[in-house]
Specification:
Blueprint: H1 5-19, H2 46-57, H3 63-67, E1 76-77, H4 83-88, H5 111-121, H6 130-155, H7 167-170, H8 178-192, H9 208-221, H10 225-236, E2 261-265, H11 276-280, E3 292-293, H12 295-300, H13 327-331, E4 332-333, E5 338-339, E6 342-343, E7 376-377, E8 397-401, H14 402-415, H15 421-426, H16 428-438, H17 455-466, H18 473-479, H19 483-486, E9 490-495, E10 498-499, E11 506-507, E12 513-518, H20 533-538
Antiparallel strand pairs: 1-3, 2-8, 4-7, 5-6, 9-12, 10-11
Helix pairs in contact: 1-2, 2-5, 2-6, 5-6, 6-8, 6-9, 8-9, 9-10, 9-14, 10-14, 14-17
């Protein structure tokens, strides 16, 4: 359940207020806003400092960055937003690249620019205790570090800007080596962690656990194996977080801010809402099915014997969703699954029960909003969601949860040649126990042993299925340098069959699957995003394009 909604409301009311002070139209990273807060009248009292802090939280991240990002990968397909298909097809350019992450830091949406303004002006505030001041600074440095983690992961070298820039100062600003930026933000986090509280004074604010989780993610993404392992272990040793009992229910609104959530984006219906459900709900409920899981993700879920579908003797291609890792059906609505009083049928043009058009029919030109793959997203979803809530949703979107910490620890220990059976039991096997036993009620689960063949692949696949559709897959396939393998392929949806409208049983008369598209990935350039052309133009040539674009 949401905790202390009055505090949440107060925070986001302040966000609305602060937004009126920070509007501008500049385009380059961290240009000083022409209509910035008046330093002669603002930045004087503790109340001003709190309002400035809340302004830094404004759009520090967004649900779309999480939900849509898997559609750039071998996990899903988004047929609607033009930028995403371009990138998934390997056809992005400086004119079509997805600039949600503000390489150029445009206008007030730039978290880095807002954070730099805050860090400069907080020194002018009178009457703020040093401990509160240092906590505020630590929170803001977390937000700035998070934004720089994304930028360096996607673009490589980026301008490292740590103070507000005037228009003149921003001209000629150049890119900074990725390693320099990473070292800088890790140092920021290192000094910030002891200044942050273990428990947030107001829900939605940065905590020590959140800063440690970000530090571990940055270290993992930069192959700092021993450091990532140590940071992840420090989160585990806090004894504050644990695995929520039921996997599917982690992502339900009624269980927000549960014991597994380390940090999330706080949304409130009617105040600071999102359109998450509009994007992912099946068309039968008025949704757009804009993030459709694809067959590659479905195939990644192991069978109950712990083996892949290629190796398992219990896998039945005519009952492809049975006897599989329970997380498959907790993440994806498969053909024949029950959903909102019906059996999901993406194959029939006509609704077999009610007659007329079947709104769940997969063919992309049949009606706007049908799943292009025949699969729908169950994670983040719930059949009780009302139509009125599709564009006014209050579901929090999780950024860091304890399961990621466990997977980071397992991977980092493996890569550092320090993996033991005890570590596997603390991490991967705990997740499997939760998924197979605690969530699904099975008696046993397929335990991973230190002697398991291809252990690296097992750990990586565990990360994929546990964190599927949580916005991390792109970062994983690029840092593992496997994107050129998993993205250069034909992409398919479900195998076409007939769904019995009374029982949900799916029968197949052939082997044809829904063909979605042919993707490509150029390893010589696509491991980095193209820098938006407007950034290069506005920099007067001081920003150079990434190779190949």
């Amino acid at each position: 359940m949401k905790t202390d909604r009055s505090k949440i409301f107060s925070i986001f009311l302040l966000i609305i207020l602060i937004s009126t002070f920070v509007s501008c139209n500049d385009d380059f990273l961290d240009r000083y806003p022409e209509s910035s807060l008046n330093e002669k009248t603002f930045w004087r009292t503790p109340e001003d400092a709190k309002m400035g802090l809340v302004g830094c939280y404004r759009w520090w991240d967004d649900y779309a960055h999480i939900i849509w990002f898997d559609a750039l990968t071998d996990n899903a397909k988004n047929p609607f937003d033009a930028r995403i298909p371009f990138m998934a097809l390997g056809e992005q350019s400086p004119y079509t690249t997805w600039d949600f992450f503000q390489y150029g830091g445009g206008a007030e949406e730039s978290p880095i620019r807002r954070c730099n303004d805050f860090l400069k002006n907080i020194e002018n505030v009178v009457g703020l205790s040093d401990s509160i001041k240092q906590q505020y600074i630590a929170e803001v440095k977390f937000i700035r570090a998070y934004d720089y983690w994304r930028k360096t992961s996607l673009y490589g070298d980026v301008p490292l800007v740590t103070t507000p820039l005037t228009l003149e100062e921003s001209n000629g600003f150049k890119r900074t080596l990725k390693k320099t930026v990473v070292d800088y933000i890790l140092n920021d986090l290192e000094t910030s962690i002891p200044r942050l509280p273990v428990d947030a004074p107001e829900v939605g604010r940065v905590t020590r656990g959140a800063a440690l989780a970000l530090k571990a993610r940055i270290e993992l993404c930069n192959e700092m194996w021993e450091e990532a392992a140590a940071t992840a272990k420090s989160v585990m040793d806090m004894n504050k977080y644990s695995l929520f009992q039921k996997y599917e229910e982690i992502f339900w609104e009624e269980n927000e801010n549960n014991v597994e959530v380390i940090f999330d984006i706080q949304y409130v219906k009617g105040t600071y809402w999102n359109q998450l459900w509009q994007h992912i709900m099946p068309h039968g409920e008025g949704g757009w099915s804009a993030v459709a899981p694809v067959q590659q993700l479905v195939d990644a879920y192991i069978c109950l014997d712990g083996k892949s579908i290629e190796e398992s003797a219990i896998y039945n291609p005519d009952k492809p969703f049975d006897r599989r890792d329970p997380r498959l059906r907790y993440t994806i609505i498969c053909p024949g699954d029950q959903w909102n009083g019906r059996y999901m049928d993406p194959f029939s043009l006509v609704d077999q029960k009610a007659g007329g058009n079947n709104l769940d029919y997969y063919v992309k030109w049949a009606q706007y909003g049908s799943s292009i793959s025949g699969y729908h997203l169950r994670k983040w979803n719930h059949p009780s969601v009302k139509t009125a809530d599709l564009n006014d949703g209050g579901l929090n979107v999780i950024i860091f949860r304890y399961a990621e910490i466990l997977l980071t620890y397992a991977e980092a220990m493996y890569e550092a040649n320090k993996l033991t059976q005890d570590v596997l039991d603390q991490t991967v096997n705990k997740l499997r126990d939760r998924a197979f036993v605690r969530s699904a009620g099975l008696i046993t689960y397929p335990k991973v042993l230190i002697t398991t063949p291809n252990l690296r692949d097992v750990i990586r696949n565990e990360r994929r299925v546990e964190l599927a559709m949580e916005g991390l897959r792109w970062y994983d396939i690029t840092r593992w340098k496997i994107a050129e393998n998993v993205m250069n392929t034909d992409v398919y949806g479900a195998r076409i069959g007939i769904v019995n409208p009374t029982t949900g049983v799916v029968t197949y008369e052939g082997n044809e699957s829904i063909f979605i598209e042919k993707r490509k990935f150029d390893a010589s350039k696509n491991y980095l995003f193209a820098i938006p052309q407007y950034v290069i133009d506005n920099s007067k040539g001081s920003i150079e394009q990434n190779p190949g674009y």
